[in-house]
């Protein structure tokens, strides 16, 4: 899930470098078919209030924290983005209450 992150990296920059410099961004890698996270950046705690360990270990974390009205559309977009790249706008719950409008971006396929 990425919020307020730049669309393109400057030459020579990695996505991880961008996340370190972009407040409000979370870099995460996941198996889109199992919806399990293999990496979540430390910024997740500041952005949504959930530590990376919770993203890794909580069963159905993503489904539980995406607004129910957005879930079907987000799931379709995730599967399509895995093959083609793309973004999805969604509302995610914050650990301290309320919702955050976020953008989930995928850069053409999973990294395996």
Which key phrases capture this entry?
two-stranded antiparallel ribbon, 112 residues, Beta-Lactamase, disordered N terminus, 5 helices, single chain, 36% helix, disordered C terminus, two-stranded antiparallel sheet, globular, alpha+beta
SSE string, helices as H and strands as E = HEEHHHHEE
Q: Sketch the major β-sheet.
A: 2 strands, antiparallel
The Cα radius of gyration reads 13 Å
Q: Could you state the CATH homologous superfamily?
A: PAS domain
Low-confidence stretches: 1-11, 108-112
Number of domains in the coordinates? 1
Instruction: Please tell me the overall pLDDT.
Output: 75
Helix/sheet category: alpha+beta
Q: How would you describe this structure to a colleague?
A:
With 112 residues, this protein is an alpha+beta fold. It has a single domain (15-106), classed as PAS domain (Beta-Lactamase, 2-Layer Sandwich). Helix content is 36%, strand content 22%. It is built from 5 helices and 4 strands; from the N terminus they run αββααααββ. The chain has helices at 15-21, 44-48, 52-57, 61-65, 68-84, and strands at 28-31, 36-40, 86-93, 99-106. The chain has a two-stranded antiparallel ribbon. A hairpin with a 5-residue loop joins β3 (86-93) and β4 (99-106). The radius of gyration is 13 Å and the shape is globular. The relative contact order is 0.18.
């Amino acid at each position: 899930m990425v919020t307020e992150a730049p669309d393109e990296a400057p030459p020579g920059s990695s996505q991880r470098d961008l996340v370190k410099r972009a407040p409000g961004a979370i870099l995460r890698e996941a198996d889109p078919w199992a919806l399990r996270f293999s990496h979540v950046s430390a910024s997740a705690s500041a952005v949504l209030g959930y530590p990376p360990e919770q993203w890794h270990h909580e069963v159905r974390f993503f489904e539980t924290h995406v607004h129910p009205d957005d879930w079907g559309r987000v799931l379709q977009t995730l599967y399509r983005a895995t093959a083609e790249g793309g973004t999805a706008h969604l509302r995610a719950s914050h650990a301290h209450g309320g919702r955050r409008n976020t953008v989930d971006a995928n850069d053409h396929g999973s990294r395996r």
